[in-house]
Amino acid sequence: MRVLICSDRMGPLSSAQAGRALASGWPGAQVRTAGEAGAGFVEATADGWEAPLQRAVLDGLPVESAVSAAGAAVVGVSRLRAPAGDNSPIPYHASSAVLGRAVASILREYRPRRLLVDLAGLDVHDGGAGLLAELGAHGEGGDLDAGVAGLGGLDAVNLDEVRRSLAGVELVGVVPTAQRDDLLLGLRGITSRRGRAAGEDVAGLLATDSALEQFTGLVAAELTSVPGAGAAGGLGWAVLALGGTLATGPELALAAVQAGLDLVVTGCSLFDFASRGGGVVAMAAALAADRLCPCIVIAGEVLIGGREMRTMGVESAYAIRESRADIATGAGLTETELARIVTRVSRSWRW
Known about the structure:
This protein is about 35% helix and about 20% strand. By secondary structure, it is α/β, with parallel strands linked by helices. The strands form 3 sheets. The protein has a 6-stranded mixed β-sheet, sandwiched between helices. Strands 2-1-11-12-13 form a 5-stranded parallel β-sheet. A two-stranded antiparallel ribbon has the order 7-8. The mean pLDDT is about 90.
């Protein structure tokens, strides 16, 4: 029986730990580690490469990175809380510069042939201007490191040094599944959608959108309409402008899966109608549909009906614990608990 195991984080268990426990019910199964951008992607990638996860602090923010034996690298920065005193619904002054410094450090130290950058850790809206500045971009008439608020007066941007620093490096920006098709500008762009949802003043939104249009127009205006350019506050556009590509964490994890599957098993902390288990579950279900085989979910807690899950392409879901709270979290799971339920569930799915 050909089984693929692809799990997200499950409570305190990493993707790799959850995957190992899930695989205990199906000896010989393929196991893939996967994580969403901004939520375990760097850790899952390091586990998949069997490379040590390196943790550091840069400008007070946690940085995670790993380098594979084959010469690939992954890096991401997580902001644990918004800057003090910044309560705006749109982070007008937030900069992606810290991510640029993390990327520059990886390039200097390791010079990887392939670099995966988790774009989702920072809540920014600067179109990647800060990232580009830290990699060597030069702007005239504005400030690339002052958030979107500093972009309106720009009249020139030079990326020559940035492109030299990335020469020969395959750059991949990793974005959240939910933002994979986000647009950067216009009525359906990130400023309009976020600002209108928060009730922001229209004049301010138009000025912000105009500043992003001014900035991106100096570099690669044609890329602003590419799906995903608006992901992670416009960092998606910055990666595209540097000749990189965009992908989600689950897409990268499942890209190398070969044909000929009989069952796909995926896991998450909480499987409910609101989150639908997240991007890893959605991608696993899509893969199963493509390979014409069933997909089952094992979750810390299950709060979704059979009809709803089947519209997602999930045949069955199994809870490790019964929900006892108004807001279920699936927290506190152990590998032992997971392996125990997998042993029971697998009896119904072996042939």
